[in-house]
Design a protein that fits this description.
Chain lengths: 455, 361
């Protein structure tokens, strides 16, 4: 027995020695920190004095995936204001897709705001999908003094809304959802950009490629089949692939599309399997509304083409991926944080912001594999969308069960999840994301085959 | 007889150890855990004192922080209590996660479809009873097979977890889905949510009452006695004329029912809705709580609070000091490992070669 205690004590001693050693070795590393970070302004708790050490860490883009972003650029300058901002993410930047796109927007917004004299201190929480853990993260961020908290995924909103009522002075944003602007709280907001515009342009690039293949005799006209990997049969997804299809068909009239739903927003293996199944079914072009890059790599393996979402996937699949589209969250982050810093009112729903404002952008065109003349055509289409000359959901370009669409509601007011107010079809087009930022186009148009609608 | 070389290190079962020594070992293991954690923080370039300070202030520093910590501890305690009689009986119920979820499903059914037909004071008890019943039934299935045909309950209860969670996934995407395609079940009406006392849903009162009840049940009732007899020797129980199968099923039903009640507390108190990972691993962590507490209900209160503190503190650690979330998990793991590991030193002693094997009494 004594031996055991002696052994433990010895362990303790060794540990203490080690502790002493590494303490010394840690200090020089810390002293590489910028000198001005010596005194953080808000020393509410003793723990805050750790901030200087943090800023010694390399730029946060290099940080491990699940780490909190180091409080970058905290160094309080004399002039300007520091805003503490929370960001709750469904995944982490390792997805190279959805959450990565938010982190990219966050970093860009930080630089823009810094130039304006507004310092942003970010606190990021990762891998929170839904439910009580999301509520806990929002409470944690609010308690730690964040003035505005962004929740980056649809499923987080219900939990966020439960918390928001208890913190009326904190601004809460549910990205991509629609419950916050409708509720009776003033501090809850929604935001989404008109991504369907980017989808349409990506579709044009895909259509041009398929038409070129038809013209060269590589495929027949009726082999111009697009395979689409969709997460769920959800309005946001339906709106996206319909826009994409209409873009493709505008330049390749014989194009048809098959949609394979995955049943998950982010599951690399299932997405790859869905893409493979679509390739096996004869699709020559793959696109996706899911978070990972596996549809792109699968397309490359099968020797077919691909257009991406959320990120430039031409690097990972250079022989397949032609172009991608993504929301650039920089504008919204800058706008929202400016509102907080300047004390102005942030609109409850950040609506009708698309390509014209730079909120939706195309990734770089893969000239090596794109059809000839794609760049010029895309520039023309983009200009058309920005000016309003091209309407993505022009009702004369598609039919539902053989009929032109003349009536469709946009907003649900009675809570049964079926839209019942605000006529979306007018002036010859379905007006997507016009009455609210979250997409509401959920029509099943002719030419698109849903392979599995169970999701 | 072969001449065998004595191994360098041998283990021997200990006899009875004085409580003082036992607690000395446990205290030492706690200190070791703190020190290993400190090394980890140093490697990451953080001051360990600050890190531990953050864990404590983050979980207990403010009223709101304490509330969050208690909220995390409530389901852990409830589930550990549920598992205690099973483990005492040496019935390895690994299915708490599924039983919690089953209770959550039943409670959610009433919250979603009966909220406009029943008033709050009736609805909440109905949800609780439904949750308990459903959790109990879910646990009873493997118990029945065990009692009847002697199937392995460890695998059976484990597999049941995935079935129940699969049912929730189906409900989420199917009949209970809110907005088409969203995979999200709508949030409950206010009347289906547990009321709060001191800012925390009354689940904490429920589990504290359960703690006392479970202590009495295990220690002072005939049932409790039967459970420990079966745990020690099934044959003895049979020889004494106990209906072993019935007692197993009864005990496991009670265990599952408490798990179901925890499921009700989780959806009605914390989540306000149902989703596939609503149980959030509590069913597995509670196994650790249960053993750390040596199946003692009152010790479970302390252990689950400690885990709550670590959990909430680690969250704040990530917020304030930018410590990766996985590091927080590692710290929790180190604590659990050391605390469970020290039980080894309580039960066994190490004999080095060349030392006489003196019976330590």
């Amino acid at each position: 027995m004594k031996k055991v205690i002696a052994l433990l004590l010895a362990l303790v001693l060794v540990a203490a020695m080690l502790a002493g050693c590494s303490n010394k070795s840690a200090e020089p590393a810390g002293s590489q920190a910028p000198a001005d970070s010596a005194a953080p302004a808000d020393s509410a708790a003793p723990a805050d004095s750790a901030a200087p050490a943090d800023s010694a860490a390399p730029a946060d883009s290099a940080a491990p995936a699940d780490s909190a972003a180091p409080a970058d650029s905290v160094a309080p300058s004399d002039e300007g204001r520091t805003v503490k901002v929370g960001l709750v993410c469904i995944g982490d930047e390792n997805d190279q897709g959805y959450t990565f796109n938010f982190i990219r927007g966050k970093d860009a917004a930080t630089d823009v705001l810094k130039a304006e004299g507004i310092n942003v201190e970010w606190v990021v929480k990762y891998n929170l999908i839904e439910g009580d853990p999301v509520a806990d993260a929002n409470i944690e961020l609010a308690e730690e003094g964040c003035e505005i908290i962004f929740n980056n995924s649809y499923g987080q909103e219900p939990a966020m809304l439960r918390v928001a009522a208890d913190y009326p002075d904190v601004t809460f944003v549910g990205c991509t959802n629609e419950g916050s602007w409708k509720d009776d709280l003033d501090n809850t907001h929604n935001a989404f950009a008109d991504i369907y515009e980017g989808r349409y342009v990506a579709g044009v690039a895909a259509g041009l490629k398929m038409q070129e293949m038809i013209d060269k005799g590589e495929i027949t006209a009726d082999q111009a089949v697009i395979g689409y990997v969709g997460a769920y049969s959800f309005a946001e997804v339906i709106s996206g692939f319909t826009a994409y299809y209409l873009g493709a068909r505008s330049v390749c009239p014989s194009a048809t599309m098959k949609v394979q739903f995955v049943g998950s927003w982010s599951d690399a293996t299932l997405e790859a399997n869905a893409a493979a199944a679509l390739c096996d079914a004869g699709c020559v072009m793959i696109s996706q509304h899911s978070d990972n890059t596996t549809p792109a790599t699968t397309a490359q393996t099968y020797g077919v083409f691909h257009t991406g979402y959320n990120n430039d996937m031409t690097g990972i699949a250079p022989e397949a991926s032609i172009i991608g589209t993504r929301i650039d969250w920089t504008n919204y982050f800058v706008h929202a944080i400016e509102c907080i810093a300047n004390g102005t009112t942030l609109e409850q729903d950040y609506c009708q912001h698309g390509m014209a404002d730079g909120d939706v952008v195309m990734t770089e065109l893969n000239e090596a594999i794109a059809a000839e003349g794609t760049a010029a055509k895309l520039a023309e289409v983009e200009a058309g969308i920005k000016s309003g000359a091209i309407k993505v959901f022009d009702t004369s370009t598609f039919t539902v069960e053989g009929q032109e669409v003349t009536q469709a509601f946009a907003i649900d007011t009675d809570g049964d999840f079926a839209p019942d107010s605000e006529e979306a079809v007018f002036d010859g087009a379905f007006h997507e994301s016009y009455f609210q930022s979250a997409p509401y186009f959920a029509l099943q148009i002719d030419g698109i085959e849903w392979l599995n609608a169970a999701y | 007889m072969h001449e065998q070389k004595t191994p360098l290190i041998r283990l021997a079962k200990r006899g009875v150890m004085s409580p003082g020594r036992m607690w000395a070992i446990r205290g030492a293991s706690f200190i070791v855990a703190i020190l290993i954690g400190a090394i980890l923080f140093l490697c990451l370039g953080h001051n360990p004192l600050e890190a531990y300070g953050t864990i404590v202030t983050g979980s207990l520093g403010k009223a709101t922080a304490i509330r969050q910590t208690v909220k995390l501890a409530v389901p852990l305690l409830g589930t550990a209590l549920a598992l205690a009689p099973c483990f005492r009986m040496r019935y390895w119920n690994i299915g708490a996660e599924g039983q919690i979820t089953a209770g959550a499903i039943a409670a959610s059914y009433f919250a979603l479809f009966w909220a406009n037909r029943l008033s709050g004071p009736v609805l909440i008890p109905v949800m609780a009873v439904a949750g308990a019943l459903f959790g109990g039934i879910c646990a009873l299935i493997p118990a029945f097979f065990k009692a009847r045909w002697g199937t392995n309950e460890t695998l059976f209860t484990l597999m049941m977890n995935y079935i129940v969670i699969g049912i929730v996934r189906w409900l989420q995407g199917g009949p209970w889905e809110g907005k088409p395609g969203s995979q999200i079940i709508p949030t409950f009406a206010k009347s289906a949510m547990l009321p709060k006392v001191f800012g925390i849903h009354i689940g904490w009162i429920i589990v504290l009452v359960l703690t006392v009840l479970m202590f009495i049940y295990m220690k002072y009732t005939k049932h409790g006695f039967e459970i420990s007899v079966i745990g020690n020797s099934e044959n003895t129980a049979r020889y004494a004329g106990m209906n072993v199968g019935r007692i197993i099923m009864r005990t496991v039903f009670i265990s599952g029912a408490i798990c179901g009640l925890v499921g009700f507390v989780i959806v009605s108190g914390a989540n306000g809705t149902l989703y596939d990972s609503a149980a959030g691993g509590v069913g597995f962590t509670a196994i650790t709580v249960c053993w750390l507490a040596q199946l003692n209900p009152f010790a479970m209160v302390g252990i689950s609070c400690l885990l709550g503190v670590l959990d909430k503190g680690a969250d704040t650690l990530q917020t304030r000091m930018a410590v990766p979330a996985s590091i927080s998990d590692i710290i929790t793991g180190i604590f659990l490992f050391c605390m469970l590991g020290c039980e080894f030193f309580i039960n066994y002693r190490i004999i080095l070669r060349g030392h006489k094997e003196a019976a330590e009494k």
